[in-house]
Design a protein that fits this description.
- The protein is built from two helices and five strands, in the order H-H-E-E-E-E-E.
- The protein is an alpha+beta fold.
- It starts with a helix and ends with a strand.
Amino acid sequence: MNVNDLNKRLKNVDSEEQLSLLFFKTNRKMHGVLHGKEVAIITIKDGYARYSYVDSEIKGYCTINKLYQYLTF
């Protein structure tokens, strides 16, 4: 599975289970779409994703079905 396939799957995620499975299947690092910083932590809870970046004070929060707009593999 290449990066394009991973990002297509990320775009079609609509549940926490699908997102967890995608992360489990891949040991790849995620990056921010806008500035390319590496993601340090992603927490999934109640249909929302919270994330933070390595060496940055930036924190993000969005619904899991919109995560593809902010993060990429």
